[in-house]
Hints:
This protein is an alpha/beta fold and 491 residues long.
Amino acid sequence: MTEVIEKTIFELSSPGRTGVTFPDPDVPRAELPESLLRADLPLPELAEVDVVRHYMRLSKFNYSVDGGFYPLGSCTMKYNPKINEDMARLPGFAFTHPLQPVETVQGNLALMYTLQEWLKEISGFAAVTLQPAAGAHGELTGVLIMRAWHKSRGDVKRVKMLIPDSAHGTNPASSGMTGLNIVQIPSDGRGNVDLAALKAACDDTVVGLMLTNPNTLGLFDEHVEEVIKIVHDCGGLVYGDGANLNALLGIVRPGDLGIDVMHFNLHKTFSTPHGGGGPGSGPVGVAAHLAEFLPSPIVGILEEADDEQPPLFGFIEPKRTIGRVKAFHGHFGMLVRTFTYIAMHGPEGLRQVAEYAVLNANYLLARLRGTYRVPYDRICMHEFVAEGRVEGADVHALDIAKRLMDYDFHPPTNYFPLIIHEALMIEPTETENKDTLDAFAEALIKIAEEAKTTPDLLHAAPHKTPFGRVDEVKAARELVLCCWLPENYNK
Length: 491
Ligand SMILES: *Cc1c(COP(=O)(O)O)cnc(C)c1O
């Protein structure tokens, strides 16, 4: 294996090289106070081309959706159309400031207002906030809204949130952050919420249920309406984790199912870039009875249009708002990208997105089910979960995932959901063609063969990447962020 030891920018430095030429100042030169100056500031000295090549080289160590297939289950790593980027860079969007008077940013506000309306139409909810920064933040917002609703009715006994055992870890985390007790609800033999267990847990101390549908097994809950009714019958509300909305676009509206509040992951369903911790966006939609609790402000129409004037957009405060959850108005650049994506697709196109996402996942499932065990094996939605082990071979899901990197594929999500042993969670998304799906299926089939004949090839994988297998636990626990500092750096 070749382990590339990357030179740091300090090691590339050579005295006298420079990448910038400062223009002559247009103000009189002045002496800086001695106290502000340092004799020793070991900044690297490099030409522009050295810096560009350094970072370009580093960027190639990263896998990206622009570089290859990225079937990371639950994360919906679909291709991000470049027109989204063009629109987000339009100066009228990119160079406005959230503190500008509303009269000067009517276009931005019209975009936000229209996006709120479109998300309402797509999801079947009565009102939407665009503030939350990501899905998990949307969950926190939604749970705070649920609590505020109970409280407004004088119903203060409710302290429990019900969460299925297949849920994403953010669900218990965001409920826990608001001080609620988490009650785990098991799944039944077909991967649905276990109705008997749900009934047993429902009483007048329940705030609600956090439901992911389709769930993280990629399965549509066969009793979703009954699940929602059981929770409503005990006075609880149903939170919808909307991370899997990609499977439903134009087909099912969560609001129509009776879900009370839900977050959207714009960076998943609506193709805004994610990965690497970049900004996401997690708007929250609510049914009519929760609209007045939304975070403040939301974009509204201050003066209706008439024959001479377009409408005047501005900010309005919901009557019993839970308050602000984000500085300014959310991640506006993501809103522009989402607006563009929805406008480019239109209703028919969005429905096709869901249909092809589901078709692609079922195609892969059909190609792989003979090779890998699929514990809850029924028609899947936009993703499915297989077991990452091979009969008679000593390999784990992690070995299979790492070996896929040698075939130039991003590994699927592994070891989640927790209820599946050695989970490999595969989400191809709609943007991949049949050739790519076939190549991926063939790689996984070949790896299953290798697991039996040359298992050490898997144990030591990946072999082709700049770095081999890293100790992920150690990397997380003992994160070293400043290894680039020169040894003699004056701390
Ligand atoms: C991604 C995801 C979340 C969290 O969303 P973020 O935008 O990453 O915070 C929650 N639930 C499910 C099922 C997810 O896939």
